[in-house]
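To the structural biology subgroup,

Please find below the input and predicted structure for glutaryl-CoA dehydrogenase (ETF), which we are adding to the shared reference set this quarter. The sequence is reproduced verbatim from the submission form. If anyone notices a discrepancy with their own records, reply to this email rather than editing the shared folder directly, so we keep one authoritative version.
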Amino acid sequence: MTDVVRPAATASPADLLDLESEFSVSELEVRDRVREFADRRIRPRIARWFADAVFPREIVPELAELGVLGMHLDGYGCAGASAVEYGLACQEIEAADSGIRTFVSVQGSLAMSAIHKHGSEAQKEQWLPRLARGEAIGCFGLTEPGAGSDPAGMTTRARRDGGEWVLDGAKRWIGLASIADVAVIWAKVSDDDAAASQGARSRAGASSSGVSTTGCERVRGFLVPTSSAGFTATPIEPKLSMRASIQCDVTLDGVRLPDDAILPENPGLAGPFACLDEARYGIVWGAMGAARDAFEAALGYAGEREQFGRPIAANQLVQEKLANMALDISKGQLIALRLGRLKDAGKLRAHMISAGKLDNARTALDVCRTARTILGGNGITLDHSPLRHALNLETVRTYEGTDEVHTLVLGRHLTGLQAFR
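Predicted structure (tokenized):
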């Protein structure tokens, strides 16, 4: 069960519009370096990891050495890469497998971004260098059993008890939680408790976030060492998708944390949403990597598989499928590149990310399903990548916002009217 390893990096046959020429030398160097790693370390083993439902933890230090853990962040040992460079890295890793790209996203776009965007200087110094080096693993706990698309409906709460925080609640579908060293947990906190914590930290010389005392609740983030008493992470098994990745149920039963465990910046749902947008941006690129790999597998197979005395690639219906897949990939990569350039220019807006995540995830899934049909019965084995990619993309299409959620984000942008409730 091994996928075909491609030769040295070149433009994909799916590149119908010469997008290769749109990238700078440094961007292509990042792409080729990550592609070489994926071809060498992931592709020859991914079928077995997927079949056995194993996340290959041994490659974490190698991914760190490759520079892809938090690579879009500045300082604290992070690579400080451009948005386009990060996108290309996501594309090449997901061309090998969505589950491995999901690790990179959870570690960098979610856990590390939360600390980088919303943490104190002490929290950044404590965790970001270790996470960038792969010496520690992070996870991001937002989704709950009863609060997926509606995170405002979360029931996890943090309350003050003396000089400590106490967390109670449950999270679901939390990537890496069972192997993580630190969890970013989002919980509802009363403004009174938040203000009391802020006052204590201000008296101790910490910065103030300006929280008012209104008696209301708002969502706040906490850094929770996973060794804390009362923190339990249980992998969700068996799964039909993302089998070379880890997703968990998490319970928080009276988890006690020091006062400075709270992330001091950006109270409210804007905090986790900013991190989710980072992850969604990576998906826009990554999904096209999976689609491209499935297309190339189907194209190669069609040229070699003979029926009725000739390669099936000579059949009109097969050529129609190949042409449509290549067009879809080219359009999806144009979307990804446009968003990357906007992000690097500081002009990327949330509805644009929703447009890219919505369209590229569903397009990639359609491409992979079509590619499987060209492989016929052989396509259901792990000797070939398209169905594995399609199974993974069922998750990619769902997480970080379902089709319905992103459609309504775009509807709100177009009409100015909220349709979520």
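Summary notes: The first helix runs from residue 25 to 52. The longest strand covers residues 164-175.

Regards,
Lab coordination
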